[in-house]
Amino acid sequence: RLDELFPRILERGMKSVAMTDHGNLFGALDFYETARKHGVKPIFGCETYVAPDRHDRTERKSNHLILLAKDNIGWKNLSYLNSMGFLEGFYYNPRIDKKLLREHSQGLIGLSACLGGEVAQTCMRRGSDAGEAVAREYDDIFGRGNFFLELQPNGLEEQEQVNGSLIALANKTGIPLIATNDCHYLNQQDARAHEILMCVQQKKTIHDEKRMHHRNEAFFVKTPAEMDAYFAHIPEAMENAARIGELCNVTFDLGNTYLPKFKVPEGYDAKSYVQHLSLGGLKKRIEEAHRRGQKIDGDAYEARLMLELGVIQTMDFAGYFLIVWDFIRYAKEHGIPVGPGRGSGAGSLVAYCLRITDIDPIANKLLFERFLNPERVSMPDFDIDFCMNRRDEVISYVTDKYGKDNVGQIITMHQIKARSGVRDIGRAMGLPFADTDKIAKFVPEPIQGKSPPIAEAIEQEPRLKALYDENPTYRELLDVAKKLEGLNRHAGKHAAGIVIAERPLWEYVPCFRPAGDEGIVTQYDKDRVEKVGLVKFDFLGLKTLTVIQTALDLINREKQAAGQEPVDLSLIANDDPGVYKMITAADVTGVFQLESSGFRELLKKLKPDCFEDIVAAGALYRPGPLEGGMVDDFIDRKHGRKKVEYDHPSLEPILRDTYGVIVYQEQVMQISSVLAGYSLGKADLLRRAMGKKKADVMAKEKAGFLEGAKEKKIDAKIAERVFDLMEKFAGYGFNRSHSAAYGMLTYQTAYLKHYFPVEFFAALLTCDKDDTDAIVKFIAEAKGHAIRVLRPDINESDTNFTVVKLAPGSATSPSAPGSATSPSATGSATFPSPSPASAGEGRGEGPRDEGAIRFGLGAVKGVGEGAVEVIQAARTEAGPFTSLFDFCKRVDGRKVNRKVIEALIKSGAFDGPALAAGISRARLFGAIGTASDRAAAAQRDKESGQTSLLSLFGGGGTPGSTGSGRGNGKSLSSPDEAYPEADEWLPKEMLAYEKESLGFYISGHPLDRFAGEIKRFTTATTANCMEKGVRAEVTLAGVVVDFQERSMKSGNG
């Protein structure tokens, strides 16, 4: 913990300290900033792993070597070496080799390291002469006077022997000695916590004798006096340590910004090209608005555009806008869905004209200054939402354009949290899981992702306090948890952050590569990469965009076939009464942002009837407004139960849409501008100050606001009341730009659900085809909208869920007698019963006029997309499959293997051709081996050139096929297709197989025969229980499908 380290260093009279983490530089910038804050000189280093050949992945051998950066050139070389250790040399550890070290040794000091160093290891294993050769080699690599033989005071017997050998080597070779204090924890009493931490990292217990651990408690920060005493016999080693502290002088330049130069057409620079594109984009946006019937004041738009361009050009951000414009243009040109906007960037008209965003900031009353404040120089920050399935394509485009070494993702560090830390520490201590889990659950649950510190939790929770006071083992557990809580546990990749640079990233920041990854990742997190001057771009994957595009593809495929105009969501009005009626009824499953039970309750009370209400709902549904009574106040004013009043007439235009309630941060800015004469830039600074709630700052801001109001002849009492109101709501205020942009997605998904429910539900199911719970939920919801979801079918299903047409009154129509359409008491998904009674083409589904959804093969468990592609290709080539034998003959058995076929039969995907021939699932299942064997034999004969006499005379084609080789679609079986006799699967067997292959039941539910009794005692289903409200008691019916028996180590169960 750096904030504890530096006070201790100063307390002990030391002026400098080196940080040499094993194999990484993750903490270098924090180390630098914290050291400077405390007035201590930071020395940058790394305990590097040196292998014979960094590219060799056959031998794990490597030795430790300390590298210290003497100057800024040394820091660049240290960063490069460490990066290459990860990017080129990683094998168990990030490794370099001596060849690479020699090429990048300028500005570096080398120390021979601990007992794991090559000099020490060679001396111990091969003798002092061999050790001397290694020492001389390193001395040659670094240059005379830049390599030191390292003595350490840990008291281990081997260390004492090595220290003696190194002193002898120094006397013989003239290589200088250095005394170092190898510290792994701050105080000696922290040794136990460190030992347990090492066990957590290795996933071992303290009782495991084979674990890696320190053999004594000497690896703490010692005083200079202790070091002097230990090395009294070799004072020059201590003197050299002090000399290195003086030699090492690295400074970080944290004031620059490094953006790659965007190539513009000849005759332009970045500033003029942004202006050219923006003016052209404005013209097109105005034309589109006119086509929507929207009146546009072109002069006002152009004036706003030129104002924004002036700020962008003055702040030298034109290149940034061009980079974002370019990769979004690529995405849209390649059909990759892009969100309408996210965050404050939606407030920029330049962004709208460049089609970076798709929400009109003037029509939606959004402020540019909330995004880019001319009075506060900071980088703009566009957060961009892409289709979740194709986001990586955009990242690949950027990587190809700017260079794979110049583009990387950003690290994110995962810390040891309170609850999980208690569990991990208990496991490392060898305590029974039940005990540590019980203690962990006594720690209060996280609020907005944050738990109280362990020390506070002990005082707040009496049961935890009692355990701490009364049980020594649990006291140690919690004491260790206090020490380890908040430490970094492991590194991962930021979900969205990408950095793009002009040159390779390791020239700006050390880099690494996570296990199993191919790309570059920075060793600094998002805040720290920006501090060193790199610019972060957020590429987010948003499933809603995938849902919208999937639904539009289904809709417009039908439109195109019918010769109709495609649906274009950019042209729809956002004031459709039918859409708002659906939203008010809380019929919002699948609607972006609105699905949760809490939001449904809000909608029922709010009764939104315009787009402004949708925007406001998104801003209001957060803990602060909900807990502070702000939401109830808003609703009461909207419905006339409270009078809407304004403290000053000039506030009405600002607060009219929110019924006099300050909901948005932009409203605070506008009020400050209107009442106190602030520029919007200055008003944004006030908004930021209010959000931080610092009393001294707010007193100063209030005085300035009141003075401004006085100059505008606003009554002092009104001005003070308004300021206090703004200050109160500033902490609750939300970014209107973000709310409006996401409100657009909310409206679009609601529109699709209202007008195209079949396609919308098919899209929802497709985008969650790997999530069984989501599929069950959406199928139950579809049933509630009288939409059928048909079983998977080898002849009709694609990878994804698709839309088909059914004639009204057909066997699977919602109104057909005897079809399983009413929701069961358990909320299970019900499909048409797979019985011979519904035999016929498509299992009695009839001509297709009425919309239904066909289950996708990609959602059948055990059937991967590769297998589905093979099935579809065979279908395209030779028509529908006529039988199991025909299927096995025509698909590649290596990709569509027995397990795939079993899953398809269990799911009912073969029911169409099988039931038409009177063959049950049980008989199909029994014939898999024969069908597969015959198909394999036929393939072998074909490959060996053997041909049957029958095929020579035009016979022997696919059973039921025409002479052309294309199937005729008739469900016929050939006499030589041997289906063994088998007992029909019992209903419970069939249901179990359906559950196994699809994750839920198709043809019924095990509890269907108890439907009457269940209806009498249940109060909810799994589909609607969340709508009953938070902490509501419900009675459900269910089936035990699995159980796990655990033995407790304590012997109590």
Quick description:
With about 1050 residues, the protein is an alpha/beta fold. Residues about 810-850, about 945-975 and about 1045-1053 have low confidence and may be disordered.
Write up this protein:
This protein has 1053 residues and is of the alpha/beta class. It has five domains: 2-183 and 221-247, Metal-dependent hydrolases (TIM Barrel); 270-412 and 494-544, no CATH class; 417-486, Bacterial DNA polymerase III alpha subunit, thumb domain (Arc Repressor Mutant, subunit A, Orthogonal Bundle), CATH 1.10.10; 574-750, no CATH class; 757-998, no CATH class. The protein has 44 helices and 16 strands. β1, α2 and β2 form a beta-alpha-beta unit. α16 (418-428) packs antiparallel against α17 and α37 (884-890) runs parallel beside α41.
**Share of helical residues:** 40-55%
Oligomer: single chain
Bin the strand percentage: 5-15%
First-residue to last-residue Cα separation: 41 Å
Give the beta-strand count: 16
Classification by helices and strands: alpha/beta
* Number of helices in the DSSP assignment: 44
Global geometry: globular
Mean pLDDT: 86
Low-confidence stretches: 811-849, 947-973, 1047-1053
Profile the largest sheet: 7 strands, mixed
Rounded to an integer in angstroms, the radius of gyration calculated over CA atoms is 35 Å
Number of domains: 5
